[in-house]
Amino acid sequence: MSSLKKFLSMIKFEHTIFALPFAYIGMVMGFSSGFSLRVFLLVSLAMASARSAAMALNRIIDRKYDALNERTKNREIPSGKIKLSQAYIFTAVSIIIFEVSAYFINDLAFKLSPIALFFVVTYSYTKRFSWLCHLYLGATDAIAPLGGYVAAAYSLSTPIWYLAAFVSFWIAGFDILYSLQDVEFDKKHNLHSIPVKFGISRALWIARLFHITAFVFLAISIRGFSLSWVAYVGATLVAVLLVVEHILVNPNDPKKINIAFFNINSYISLVLLVAFIAGRYCCG
């Protein structure tokens, strides 16, 4: 495996598709005088570098637990494919690229960038002391639409906060489902999660509640941006996908959890990207 492939595998680069579309949605909703290729490229670079730093830090911080967990012991750092020093260098470079990107986006983006970095650096620690770690991860990913909007509008508006709330509860909900794979391991090693705290059955209901809440905020954000009926069609399709996700999830079958996590959530991101763009620019 080449060095590049090792690092892309470590940060699960393909999962950037979860958050990047929401940065683009925020950007498009923030444009008032037409599309800007410069802003688009800088937002793309900032998002990719921020997520790379977040995932690399997560792997660094969790390396000891990853080595003990049968599911994660073959990850790049515990398996020795990537040295710890290399991971630190990769993280530092990613953070520098993020800060440089934020600097060139605009003053507000640069001033707010330390807040984004704070969440990026700290979210991996939350499961060590709180079962609210899922919501903290959701809040971290919710920075994507906020950042995209700031990049285009130089400000923040009420509707973009509703979209950020959707991302928060959507991410938190499927992170609960994903954590079902490690319930026994987490109990053994005193790690916190909603399934550990409340049990698997109640955790499934909490995840459903989070996703219902997410859908409500999605609908409110569409109304707040005064989007056309196309956006509501997209939201309806997202609701269907969320139902499918919960039907697919089987705590005793990790393969189905992975299908729900990777496939369904990728579809949700892309559907909403198309729905918001179409809802703003056509079929009004």
UniProtKB/TrEMBL annotation:
It is a multi-pass membrane protein. It comes from the Bacteria. GO terms for molecular function: 4-hydroxybenzoate polyprenyltransferase activity. GO terms for cellular component: plasma membrane. Signal peptide: none annotated. Pfam families: UbiA (PF01040). Gene3D superfamilies: UbiA prenyltransferase (1.20.120.1780). It is found in: Membrane. InterPro entries: Polyprenyltransferase_UbiA-li, Prenyltransferase, UbiA_prenyltransferase, UbiA_sf. Its EC number is 2.5.1.39. GO terms for biological process: ubiquinone biosynthetic process. Its cofactor is Mg(2+). The chain crosses the membrane at residues 12-33, 82-102, 133-154, 160-180, 200-223, 229-248, 260-281. Keywords: Cell inner membrane, Cell membrane, Membrane, Transferase, Transmembrane, Transmembrane helix, Ubiquinone biosynthesis. Its main location: membrane. Belongs to the UbiA prenyltransferase family. This is 4-hydroxybenzoate polyprenyltransferase.
